[in-house]
Amino acid sequence: MKSYTINAPLQIDATIELPASKSISNRALIIYALSHGGILPKNLSDCDDTEVIIAALKNSPDIIDIKAAGTAMRFMTAFLSSTLGSHTITGTERMQHRPIKILVDALKSLGANISYIKEDGFPPLHITGKQLTGGHLQIPGNISSQYISALLMIGPILKQGLELELSGEIVSRPYINMTLKIMAYFGAEAQWESENIIKVSPKPYINKAYLVENDWSGSSYWYEIMALCKDDQAKIHLTGLFRNSLQGDSVIQDIFAKLGVRTVFEESGTDATTTVTLTKTPYHLESFTYDFTKCPDLAQTVVVTCCELGIKFHFTGLASLKIKETDRIEALKIELRKLGFILHDEHDDTLIWNGDRCEASMAPIDTYEDHRMAMAFAPTCFVHKDLLMNNPQVVSKSYPHFWDDLRQANFLIKQN
Questions:
Q1: 397 is in an annotated binding site
Q2: Are residues 244 and 195 in the same domain?
Q3: Which CATH number does the domain housing residue 392 bear?
Q4: 398 annotated to a ligand binding site
Q5: Res. 272 pLDDT band, cuts 50 70 90
Q6: What phi and psi values does residue 192 have, to the nearest 5 degrees?
């Protein structure tokens, strides 16, 4: 088991090439495969999640191991169900305890041939693919948007297309809209028919060149670094982001404007990409209330930042954090206590810090096989010297060169 000792620089002036968006990469790859085309999307993410999809599509093995990639499990389950072939899809021990029943039931109602190998409702799955009929389908709107996106992306190749009705509250709507926009770029006719119904016509995709934008989720850790660093003259330049991004997590710039970080866009090419420059700006926030329903992947970063800045908070819309790589709500409570913060949760979807403190143990931060735990806690080294972290390599899931980028910004990182 590796561990790192992390120390922060006194000054920061860095230019960082962010990783490509894995959310966009993974969607573009599935659509690329469904279009039977030869033009591979450009600037694909080099993270674990994307690489397992590339390997599965390229090699089409009988047994597809997607490791810890939840997006790949959901997208590939729908893809394999709707394309010819027989496969077993599996993953890590944690992945085999992440629920997939809602998606499997939905696909079965469309005619899919899927069976559970070990335990009902969970991977691994055996899938015999075929052309599915499609038609009307109703599922809850408060499930992971990856289930919804998985179903939407196969819609154009279904005989009758797909009419997807989402019941109740719809969470992570920006991720659904991202999927629809990428589908439309590749020629699909897919749009909201009403507040809760999406219609996808049975019109095949057209393969064409596509450029994947860089990752706004990955930028969030640099926003946190800017917020926590002590250098009033600090500058961080982040390249390859889109001003008019498909990513819901681009809202990070608005969130951190309240936490003392200013965002300036600068055009940097002939496409839509820009260089974003972060600087410090005064702020006067004493408490923060926010609903993360539309951007749950940002929650860990903002929670840790607010604690270290002494800003009390009441954050809602966190239900999906319970079923991510780990139970992120519980993990945040445990690890922040090591740094001296006592958090409380309510209703499995709310996290609260009222300013309660305890003596910091400074025990090593555990990462729970969760990339976002590692990256959200790394910037706390500005406050806690010689920060220890176990299993830091988990960042490979979404941001493989995160530690290299920190070193480039003059962080001191020692492997123990």
A1: yes
A2: no
A3: 3.65.10.10
A4: no
A5: low
A6: -70, 125
